[in-house]
Amino acid sequence: MTAWAQGYVTDSPYTFSYQPAQAPGHIAMVCAMAGVAWQPRPGMAVLDIGCGRGLTVNVLAAANPDWNVIGLDYNPAHIAEAQELAEAAELANAGFVEADLAAMTDAELDQLPELDVVTIHGVWTWVSDAVRAGIVRLLARRLKPGGVCYIGYNVLPGFGADAALQRLFRHLAALERTGTSPERAAAALETIRGLQASRPVHLANTPMFQRLTGDEPALDGAYLAHEFLTEHWRPVFFEDLAAALAGAKLEYVGSATMHENIPDMLFEEPQRRVHDSLPHGAPREFMKDLCLQRPFRRDVFIRGLRRVDRIAALDRLVLAAARPMPEESPKLVVPVGIAEMGPDLYAPMAAALNEGPQALGHLRHLPQGRTPNPAEVLAIFSGGMVLPALREGGPSPRTDHFNRVLHRFAQASGSTEGQLAMASPMAAGGLPCSWVELAVCMQPGITAPDADPVAITHRALPHLTEEQAPGAIELVTRMLAERLPIWRRFGVLPG
């Protein structure tokens, strides 16, 4: 690590990924499910703490020209790359700040605008107490009354079983005297895989351990380094995080993983009886963490909680299909089994969503004979099937320019591992995509009636070998049939 790193991994950039849960539209769905008053509005100021390489910030700025979107990060390499993308895409409303929150003075914090939204993904459980205190000071001073905060973090007890694995990673990586942090993490991983057969008594066989030692492709070295090699890696109990954020007058709203807000999808008896006997708030959330296999939480808090009618708030949400709706209900895997809808409930809603954006209140009144619970419908659909639709209208020159610049950046950097996203005016955020989808969508002439999938494939993927070409052409042909209507719907391509 470099001399100024203070225990952080700084010699390698983090993965280049878009986080859909950080989009204000998604946060609004969480608030509606909890019956809490909050909706995105024009002219918002949004801050991403620990913005990394800035993809989420830049996507939000491209999709919302009237928002002021700021990214803050400790690593100057991250900030430089994020600024480069913003400048190339001519995003005057995207700003980036290199800062150490442990050292920022109140006067420096007050140079930030008053904030409507703050997002903190993958930061809290990787930083020192001084940085955590700096985050709370920032929230207390700059988050507006009524403002919301999304935070994603490693939680106890779910991630506690991997404490020994993390410590082993650090010890093994320290044996490597040369190489970058990702290279040293990869070397440590090979040793850990060698240990698998001997099953050390206290090296728990957790889902993370299984993922690292299984037959699946190895995790990205940069991810492993940032996840395991920081000196400050410390998962926390929910109630301890909530107590810290209370110093900024933040109150818990709900989980950004929608089904985790529905006890019927989480608990068998007697777990449900114990959960229901506990007070609302931290005790019930602890019961969830005790019973669920979730090492990572994604939570929403608000500074000034106001209750509204939950059903009415859910019914007002407008949803749009982010992929063609399948013939049968999506099957959502939840702790008590599989959550799905019967054909009589699902078919009319799916048909309507395939036609275009729909209010949730309209959707759930389409089935004959029974009106499903809006929270359950949202939970089943929100696992990648739908996104919130906040605006009408097609692509703007701004979003089109950004998406093409992003395509060039992804090509130049070889960013094929993380989740990308195309800026969508309708979603007021990103339409998640793979690098292949981005490459195909940005090809000229794909909306023409006589578009040639073979030619598009070879333009989008110019380095295909002769053996790879047939499979790639089949993939692109299917992609054009399935994704073109979605890209039009979300304003990525002209309708």
What would you note in describing this structure?
The protein is an alpha/beta fold. It has a domain at 160-228. The protein is built from 20 helices and 14 strands. It has helices at residues 24-34, 55-63, 76-88, 106-109, 129-142, 163-175, 181-195, 207-213, 221-228, 238-245, 271-277, 282-291, 310-316, 343-355, 360-363, 374-381, 397-413, 435-441, 453-460, 469-489, and strands at residues 45-49, 68-73, 94-98, 115-121, 143-154, 251-255, 296-302, 318-321, 332-334, 337-339, 358-359, 386-388, 420-424, 429-433. The strands form 4 sheets. Strands 3-2-1-4-5-7-6 form a 7-stranded mixed β-sheet. A 3-stranded antiparallel β-sheet has the order 11-8-12. Strand 9 and strand 10 (337-339) form a beta hairpin. Helix 1 (24-34) packs antiparallel against helix 13, helix 6 packs across helix 7 and helix 11 (271-277) packs antiparallel against helix 12. The chain is globular, with a radius of gyration of 23 Å. The mean pLDDT is 93.
Topology diagram in text:
Elements: H1 24-34, E1 45-49, H2 55-63, E2 68-73, H3 76-88, E3 94-98, H4 106-109, E4 115-121, H5 129-142, E5 143-154, H6 163-175, H7 181-195, H8 207-213, H9 221-228, H10 238-245, E6 251-255, H11 271-277, H12 282-291, E7 296-302, H13 310-316, E8 318-321, E9 332-334, E10 337-339, H14 343-355, E11 358-359, H15 360-363, H16 374-381, E12 386-388, H17 397-413, E13 420-424, E14 429-433, H18 435-441, H19 453-460, H20 469-489
Parallel strand pairs: 1-2, 1-4, 2-3, 4-5
Antiparallel strand pairs: 5-7, 6-7, 8-11, 8-12, 9-10, 13-14
Helix pairs in contact: 1-13, 6-7, 7-9, 11-12, 19-20
